[in-house]
Amino acid sequence: MLTPSNSPAPVDYRARWAFSRRNLWSGILFGVGLVAFVDEAVFHQILHWHHFYDLATPEIGLVSDGLFHALSWAATIGGLFLLADLRRRRAFWQTRWWGGVLLGAGLFQLYDGTVQHKLLGIHQIRYVPDVLAYDLTWNIVATVLVIAGIVLTVRTRPSTIPVA
Question: What is the pTM of this model?
Answer without folding.
Answer: 0.87
